[in-house]
Design brief:
This protein is of the alpha+beta class and about 250 residues long. It contains five helices and 13 strands. It has one domain: Umud Fragment, subunit A (Ribbon). A hairpin with a 2-residue loop joins β5 and β6. The longest helix has 27 residues. The protein is globular and about 55 Å long.
């Protein structure tokens, strides 16, 4: 009888643990891995993050008056599902909130008519040719006349068509319940300049802390077969000590 009681207690403890873990990953925190260099040098490929899913709750509800919910702010590093493929998660910095006016000229970002100081950004491309969309945004109708070949300039045409209805003068205006997100590695980031706004409903939470960082090939995310996974796991087992970036462990994300 005593043995059955012990087994039951262990089983109940296991069930409670699983329930708490599921609750935590569903409502409070979730783990994500940085797969690309779009947020370098602030977030590196191979950084493993804990994301605060709790902070952007509904602050207008009764529970929001008790718990520390808040709105998404400019400068927050957010995790969201990619609007064009909801199976993918992206990590970018929220640059524009609803109602903001945004313009980029020669790599300089203007927010609501003022040059925005951005100490967190990096420009790593060797060229400084003021490339369309990347360095000057949004593109205006008169600028489109230079790009006759759609196939060679698909990103440029798609960006122009998408933002045309949101363009006022030389600026785009962020619509309600949407955000404009960009990578800190401005020359190598597929972000809102190319595929559009991030709907509020897509935002999972705010990047909180790096709990582990491991030197990772920037192209690893392209290799996701079963055998690729086995090789990646073996690499971690063999090189855990050597390739872990210990100085980034438990580093807060800002």
């Amino acid at each position: 009888m005593e043995r059955q009681s012990s087994v039951r207690e262990y089983f109940e403890s296991l069930v409670v643990t699983v329930i708490l873990a599921l609750f935590g990953t569903t409502f409070i925190v979730q783990a994500f891995k940085i797969p690309t260099p779009s947020m370098e040098d602030n977030l590196l490929v191979g950084d493993h993050l804990l994301v605060n899913k709790f902070i952007f709750g509904n602050s207008d509800s009764w529970i929001g008056r008790v718990l520390p919910f808040r709105d998404i702010r400019r400068g927050d590093i957010i995790v969201f599902t990619y609007p064009e493929d909801l199976s993918k998660h992206y990590v970018k910095r929220a640059i524009g909130i609803p109602g903001d006016r945004i313009r980029i000229s020669n790599q300089r970002l203007y927010l609501n008519g003022n040059l925005l100081p951005e100490p967190y950004i990096f420009h790593k491309a060797p060229d400084h040719n003021n490339l369309p969309v990347r360095d000057n945004f949004p593109l205006l109708k008169e600028q489109m006349n230079r790009f006759a070949d759609y196939q060679q300039n698909k990103d440029i045409f798609d960006s122009y068509v998408y933002f045309r209805e949101y363009t006022q003068g030389e600026e785009i205006v962020v619509p309600p319940n949407c955000y404009f997100a960009m990578g800190d590695n401005r020359d190598n980031s597929a972000d809102s300049r190319y595929w559009g706004f991030v709907p509020r409903k897509n935002i999972v939470g705010r990047a909180l802390i790096i709990y582990w960082s491991y030197v990772t090939d920037p192209n690893e995310h392209l290799h996701d077969s079963f055998f690729d996974r086995i090789q990646q796991f073996a690499d971690v087992v063999i090189n855990f000590i050597k390739k872990t970036r210990w100085n980034r462990t438990f580093k807060l994300v800002a």
